[in-house]
Amino acid sequence: MNLNQNPYQMKQFTLLATALFFLVSCTQLAGPEEAKELDEVAKQNVEVVKKLLNAFENEDIPTILELFPEGAVIHGPMHDWYDTVGNEFSEGIEKWLTNVDSLKYDVISILPQSVEEGDLAGDWALLWCYESWYVVESGKHVKIMWHSPMRIEDGKIVFMASYWNQWDMYKQQGAELKWPEKEKE
C-alpha cells in the first residue's frame, strides 16, 4: 500500500500511530492505594458481616439474633417490623425466612472503616453484594444489588441501613406499573 498516493489513508495511519504511541508511552501517574494490612478490629468487623450473611443463608436465627443487641437500629425498605431490635425482630426474621428459599449472597466487597469524630464516629463495615432468593409466594427468583453500612461495637451490629432498588425487586416478581388513563373530555 502506498500511503503517499491516498491522503485519507495517510491521515488514518498518522492518527493510528499517534494513538498507539500515547497508549504505549502512558504510565500510571496515580492509582488506587496499595492494600493496607487491616488491624484486628477491622478484621473482626469483616468477620461479623460474613457471619451475618452465612447465618441468613443457613437460616440460623439464633446466630442472627446474637449479632444484633437489644436496641440496635435497622433502617431500610421493608424494615418496618424491626426498626429497633426488640421482641418483634425475631418474629420478623422468622416470617421473612419462611417466605424465601435458597437465599444466597455474592459479596462484591466488605470495607472496614473507622470514623474518629462526629455523628458517624465508630467502627463500620460497608457491604456491597448481590442478594438472591426464591420467593415462595410468587414462585419467582429475585436478585438485587444490596448495599449496607453497619456500625459494629464489640462484635455486635448496633446500626445497619439497607439500600436496594425496591421497585426492581417487585418487577422481578411480576409487578407492573400502570398509570390511570386520563378521562376524555
Share in β-strands: 25-35%
Largest sheet: 5 strands, mixed
- Straight-line N-to-C gap: 71 Å
Could you estimate the helical fraction of the residues in percent? Answer: 25-40%
Number of helices: 5
Structural class designation: alpha+beta
What is the average of the pLDDT values?
Answer: 80
Layout of strands and helices, then pairs:
Elements (H helix, E strand, L loop, with lengths): L6 H19 L14 H18 L3 H7 L5 E3 L11 H12 L1 E16 L6 E14 L4 E14 L2 E6 L4 H7 L13
Parallel strand pairs: 1-5
Antiparallel strand pairs: 2-3, 3-4, 4-5
Note down, in words, how this protein is organized.
With 185 residues, the chain is of the alpha+beta class. Helices cover 34% and strands 29% of the residues. It has five helices and five strands; from the N terminus they run αααβαββββα. The chain has helices spanning 7-25, 40-57, 61-67, 87-98, 166-172, and strands at residues 73-75, 100-115, 122-135, 140-153, 156-161. The protein has a five-stranded mixed beta sheet, sandwiched between helices. Helix 2 (40-57) runs antiparallel to helix 3. The longest helix has 19 residues, at 7-25. Residues 19-24 and 26-35 have low confidence and may be disordered.
